[in-house]
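## retry 2 of 3
previous attempt timed out at serialization; input unchanged, resubmitting
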Amino acid sequence: MEAGRQRDTTAVSRREAIAKAEGLVERLGRGMATDLARSSGADLVAHYLDPERTPPRTDEWSERHRGEQKRYCDLYVNPTIGHITCAALTPADFQRILDQASSPSVAKHLRSTITALVHAGLENGLILARQDVLRGVRPKHADQPGGGARRVRRSIDVDELDDLGDDLDTDDHAITQAEIPPHDIVHALAAATASRRGEWWRELEILLTAYSGMRWGEHAALRANRVHADHRRLTIDRQLIETIDGKLKLSLPKNRRRRTTVYPAYTPAGVDLASLVQRRLDELEPGQPLFPSPTGRWARRSNYSRNTWNPAARTVAWP
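## retry succeeded, writing output
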């Protein structure tokens, strides 16, 4: 009985009938529609990506995170399980998804995606707890003795930095003091970017970012009216993101946390950073980007890497 009326189901064998009955009883006991038993993997993905769904631990996803999740689902999840009914999903199906990962980093992010996908399905009733679809599912890169993902430690060419982006996994490798670039090479890089572009403020761009703790998207979105020179403070309330379709958009900072950060009057190498900031502010209107593209618009990370960062980094042998 469901919602006051009798429903029935059929199966081709006793075993399948019992399995269906168990699923129906579980859904009825949780107050979920029994029609969900006919849903497919594609329906599960659609529910997971539904903008109206409230994800755990936050009110809504950022646009960048949503784009990344859609990309993983389009590339890996839907082609593998989209045609399979949710009731028939097994750990082997999710292992096949994870086996497509081309690197430990992709595997880590894909594992997070399918874990969140399954949790969304469990909450909605598309997947039942008894299915235990993630039991034993792990990346193919995690087969070394002792378990855990393989820790890859190698040098990274500057051409790779833009592609890696947020995929750099700081949990895999603790940064030691010896690996932090020394102040002299930070200043050399800053001078090299200014020399290459013929714009004096490129030096300020590197130094201010290095000694205030801004992320790329935060520094790219920084406007003149968010710099408070009297107190050497920066209001970080926006970041610039590039969507999956290549558009630049302003969004809240990472984890949706606005903050205020500071910069020193002088850098450790003795550069008068406060004076450079004031000089730059004197050149701009309040709402203008502090560090724009050559056309005066928001800077695009890939263009900056190709035209400014990579050549300058090679010049100074950036570690």
